[in-house]
Amino acid sequence: QKATNITWHDAIVTAEDREKLLNQKGCVIWFTGLSGSGKSTLATAVEQVLHQQQHHTYVLDGDNVRHGLNKNLGFSPEDREENIRRIGEVAKLFADAGTIVMTAFISPYRADRDQARELIAEGRFVEVFVDCPLEVCEERDTKGLYKNAPRWRD
């Protein structure tokens, strides 16, 4: 940590107070999987259902977050790690605010997902692996990533 002259400021309104107001518990539903697997589609569908049931929700989508908060990050292993670290911290804030937050990120490294999980209160982090066959993701190729990837199998 670069900043050293900082002090945590305790809030008067607690997470429990916010949850009581919203009549729900904040949590994180973390969608992970290959590009084109349907993570964002599923996250937004879950959000729509929860919203219709009067729940306070939000989706943190990988591409959307890279337009703002993480626009200075690329796709190197180090940048991917920092991307997920930041998202874990933001998801923690949303959950603390009593929101049901869905994240949709490739998040290929278990260690990064575990680090995000450790930020969230016990029982408030659900990891969903969107298990879509590579061939289907290649057919969808929503971002044109697969057509440009080196062919390593035949």
Q: In summary, what is this structure?
A:
The protein is of the alpha/beta class and 154 residues long. It has helices spanning 15-22, 39-52, 62-66, 77-96, 110-119, 134-140, and strands spanning 27-32, 57-61, 100-104, 125-129. The protein starts with 14 loop residues before the first helix and ends in a 14-residue tail after the last helix.
Notes on the protein architecture:
A four-stranded parallel sheet has the order 2-3-1-4, with helices on both faces. The mean pLDDT is 92. It has six helices and four strands, in the order αβαβααβαβα. α4 packs parallel to α5. The protein has 154 residues and is an alpha/beta fold.
Key terms:
154 residues; 4 strands; ATP-binding; kinase; transferase
Strand adjacency order, main sheet: 2-3-1-4
Secondary-structure-derived class: alpha/beta
**What order do the SSEs take from the amino end to the carboxyl end, as H and E?**
HEHEHHEHEH
Beta-strand content bin: 5-15%
Quaternary class: single chain
Topology:
Layout: H1 15-22, E1 27-32, H2 39-52, E2 57-61, H3 62-66, H4 77-96, E3 100-104, H5 110-119, E4 125-129, H6 134-140
Parallel strand pairs: 1-3, 1-4, 2-3
Helix pairs in contact: 4-5
